[in-house]
Amino acid sequence: MEAGAVHTDWHNSLFILSPGDRDGLTQIAQEAGWTAIAARRPAGAVQRFLASDALIALVDLRGEQDVERLIAPLAQAIEASGGALVALLEAGDVVRAAECLSAGATHFLASPISIELLRVTLMSARTLADRLGGGTAQARQTTGMLRTDALTWRLDRARGRVQLSDTLRQALELDRDDVTPAMLLRRLDRGERRVVLTALRGMMQSGRLGTFAHAVPGRGADRLVHHLRAGVGAIIADVELLAQGRDRDPTMRDYLTGLYTRQGAVGWIERQGERDVSVILLSLSQFDRMNAAYGQMAGDALLGRIARRIERMAEEVAGPGTLVARVAGTEFLIGLTGEAASSERAIFLARRLIGAIGRPFSAGDHLIRLTARCGIAQKRLEDDASQLIRRAGTALADARQAGGEGIRILSADKRSRQVDADQLETDLRLALDRGEIGIVFQPQYPMNQERISGVEALARWNHPRYGPLGAGILFATAERSDYMLPLSAHIQAEALRQAAGWPVPLSDLRLSINVTAADLAQPAFMPDLLAQVDRSGFPRARLTVEITESGLIEDVDAAAALLTALRDAGLAVAIDDFGTGYSSLAYLKSLPLDYLKIDSGLAQDIAGSARDRIIVRGVIHMAKSLGLKVIAEGVETEQQRDLLSREGCDFYQGFLRSAGIGSEELVTLVMGR
Questions:
Q1: For 518-552, how does the pLDDT look when each residue is reduced to its tens digit (9 = 90+)?
Q2: β-pairing, 56-60 with 84-89?
Q3: Beta strand segments in 501-594, E
Q4: Residue 86 near residue 125, CB atoms below 8 Å
Q5: pTM for the predicted model, two decimal places
Q6: At a CB cut-off of 8 Å and minimum separation 6, what does 50 contact?
Q7: Largest pairwise CA distance in the chain
Q8: Which of 70, 214, 221, 238 lies at a CB distance of 3.0 to 4.6 Å from 192, suitable for a disulfide?
């Protein structure tokens, strides 16, 4: 880990529920080497556990007669997470251990507890969590239960500086992540500053680090709870966000997930006024079966995990302030405004959400796999909030009935796009003659620069019935109907024609065009492509040919000869979507390349777990060592861009800066810089 980095070790994270001795247990847990998130009240404990990094819970039952009240709710959540639960009993109360184990505890220990006894017990609990699959790094990566950007800060005692995680910096609305304690205090209300200072001074004088809380600036009664622990020459805090104040009316918040209810969602939509709004209605499939197999408490715990996934994904793609609500038992609503409300962005988010739900969850020693469907509706002038949600429900019903990727959209001016695959194959053969296949250009930017250095040409099908269809469904239809070659030739020719007509201010932009495996298989591919380029008038020196890795693997020697010939002819060559297919790092040494384009999923992993970052870092460093420029696709957040830049990535493209745009918009964008 880099010096000074903020980090929470989830493998040593412990959730403590203690009505009478929260601070004392927190202190001894920290001395035993564990990071503690502690609560006094049973109310809301399940939600706080689900929002934490912990897979192990310690429940203090000393003086508590009703074991079931404290253990049972947490036990169900822990079972769904594949974790462990330790019951703490009075010295003479060991006979109740059987009752605790029956209620769901996996371990117990008796008071008084020593640091060594606690350490041994927690190590045993952690071993169980690892064996069940919830505690291993690979399983947490697979299930998505690892929070990779927790709310944390670290006070360096020698420097007198506080380093904040990105998430906490954003919550406190700071423009830097390395600040003085005074700068942090100034973010709080005056009354809160006094409370925090008093708490900190008391902890310093006693030498026992504990917990303090304050309101989140600008968010009403929402509170940040700081759990302090000692580091080497530092004080470290793991911070909880208790989102309890945005709506005091309990009907506006779902008791289980903390999300808005349907009523809260209606109020949010109404507050948007005349702004563009789209809503995504997401429904879980197979959930009833899961509930029947594992019980309602496990199902409730799993819904909490799903809610967190949806929140994180929505904020990553659409930005802070995006509406996320639970509007029915297994239905969630995501509200988008502004640029995020475009059909392209909404469909993109829906696909990401379906993929996130599709990653398995652990429940004890089982993996639960769920699927999801999405209906999308864009607001019309005559729609009120209830009508908009009903239209999203109509689109969701279409998605359930039609199958396929599980997404349907009701645009502001069109009916539900329930796509008939057989009809699409017929329509595609007429689409070229009708001029329905268009081109958009997605800008590419050098890391840490504002100027556009190049563009990738992307295809769009402006279908007369279904509206705009992306490249994925277009090429899937072409492959089924054996129409790939004419389609590819049209896209390449149209991209070159438009690019050749760009004005002088765009004369330094590179153009990337995609070449399919079917193109490569044609005997005359090379001379035909070069002739097409020369006829267009676009300079060979500014053209990059992008070939997916799957199109090269069948015959690496032949691919190497072809790429050499293309480069000798003055074109640059890139491997596109690296990381989605064969992904062998070894075969790249045989291929003469200029660029390596890492797939969007791989690029977004840079902001994931430590294992994810190692893999992405390895790909980038390998490419750089081979003398290749690296382009990252699908960059959606500033955090992803900054991390990719830090690892040596050269260029990026994605929704962070721009979706695909037409030639006129591109000219305006470049000339307006």
A1: 788 788 888 999 999 999 999 999 999 988 765 55
A2: parallel
A3: 510-515, 543-548, 572-578
A4: yes
A5: 0.46
A6: 77, 81, 301, 304, 305, 308
A7: 91
A8: 214
